[in-house]
Design a protein that fits this description.
single chain; 419 residues; alpha/beta; 6-stranded parallel sheet; 14 helices; 25% strand
């Protein structure tokens, strides 16, 4: 049979023989909203929870995701901006802030990849820098000891909005809600302390109320004081299916069941070989993002089994600290990565090495990628010449009837093993 997996803005193909058990693991098919503009407008004008509208004369800050998230801003933003104008808020008093977190900063000439040109021409837009302490406002600590420092322009606004998607997240449980501001507009130390909680048992995809990392984010959001949230839920083709707006907590309460209905997939037993894609662009823009697909797919791959991850990674690793840390001479295997990470301590950037090694140490992992050979070698990833070459090599070590999993949208799929 022929298989197809998303890859960058296209797809990869390979052929599998018929003497294996093929296990498709993909989100439920869901048609796109017939009139997404009307759907978003309905959500924005009939918000969930207790929210206060903006008023004339207010300065408004809007947190938006960077280019690593497929947020349909061209659909979500027009009703929000129309509502602001109707309330008497002037266009010059609205500031869009790209919530880059510790991702590489987005230069102005790339803003068009995130926002429509009509918005870029009419509104102020800037990109957050988590490492510039002079542009952060300190807000104390959370109950879990996370020091809170948030973008000063966002905190200086009279009315704060977050725009984003609700989807599975490998250790926050779910993205969406306040996260775009609480992490995306936070300082590096805030993000580092929060992300260190990923090592706790409940910090996994699908966990929300019991998730320490996510609940820490909720507390940060409450301290920031976010007035309005607009979140989309997309199908596997990245088309808008549902939209929720209003109080951020109410949006999450409505969005999470919808995400589970769409993306939670039961799997009868672990597979011997997993062939996965994070979902194509922008989820495979770099390994920093594509690793999330590895994490989700590994959850249903047996220890000692094999993984083929198809991720174009045109921007390489996606984090300079990750690469610098991996270039240490003592880093010679995934097991050494785990040992050194435990010895040297948690830091954002190098944590990606830990996340990759956590799965690659127990599952033989091959990467189908456009990444440079030297970089793949530094990251301890075996690079295949093609998807078919990787498949042929993996099949040679499998017995007839072995289970082969296919996950075309691994970053967003929540596989649930039934045994």
């Amino acid at each position: 049979m022929e298989i197809r997996l998303p890859y960058n803005r296209g797809e990869l193909r390979a052929v599998l023989p018929d003497d294996f058990t093929i296990v498709p693991i993909a989100p439920r098919s869901q048609a796109a909203a017939q009139n997404p503009t009307a759907l978003v407008k309905q959500a924005v004008y009939h918000p969930l929870g207790d929210v206060s509208p903006p008023r004339a004369g207010m300065r408004v800050a809007i947190a938006i995701n960077d280019k690593t998230r497929p947020v349909p801003h061209e659909i979500l933003l027009p009703p929000v901006l129309a509502g602001l104008r109707h309330a008497g808020v002037r266009d010059q008093d609205v500031h869009f802030i790209i919530a880059a977190g510790t991702h590489p900063a987005i230069p102005p000439d790339e803003y068009a990849a995130i926002l429509p040109q009509t918005i870029l021409a009419a509104y102020r837009v800037s990109c957050h820098d988590a490492y510039d302490k002079s542009k952060l406002t300190k807000l104390g600590e959370t109950a879990r000891g996370t020091p809170i420092a948030i973008n000063s322009d966002y905190m200086g606004a009279d009315y704060r909005i977050v725009i984003g998607n609700v989807e599975p997240h490998q250790f926050q449980g779910y993205s969406g809600g306040v996260k775009s501001a609480a992490i995306g507009l936070a300082g590096a130390e805030t993000i580092n302390h929060n992300h260190a909680m990923m090592r706790q048992a409940q910090a996994i995809w699908g966990s929300y109320e019991e998730n320490p990392a996510r609940q820490d984010v909720e507390e940060i959001g409450a301290i920031i004081g976010i007035d309005f949230c607009v979140n989309a839920i997309l199908n596997a083709q990245k088309a808008l299916v549902w939209a929720f707006a209003g109080d951020p907590v109410a949006v999450m309460q409505a969005g999470i069941p919808a995400v589970r209905e769409l993306y939670a997939v039961p799997v009868s037993a672990p597979v011997d070989l997993m062939i996965a894609s994070p979902g194509g662009h922008p989820k495979d823009i770099n390994l920093y993002q594509a690793q999330k697909g590895l994490a989700h797919a590994s959850a249903v791959t047996r220890s000692g089994g094999r993984m083929i991850l198809c991720a174009a990674c045109p921007e390489g690793a996606g984090n300079a600290e990750y690469v610098r840390w991996m270039r240490q001479p003592q880093i010679t295997s995934h097991n050494v990565v785990l040992e050194e990470f435990a010895r040297q301590g948690f830091r954002v950037g190098r944590h990606k090495a830990f996340q990759v090694a956590r799965d690659a140490a127990r599952i033989h992992t091959t990467l189908v990628t456009d990444m440079a050979d030297e970089l793949a070698h530094v990251l301890l990833l075996e690079k295949a010449a093609s998807l078919q070459a990787a498949v042929d090599e993996a099949l040679a070590g499998l017995p007839p009837g072995a289970r082969i999993g296919l996950m075309p949208v691994a970053n967003a799929t929540m596989p649930m093993v039934l045994q």
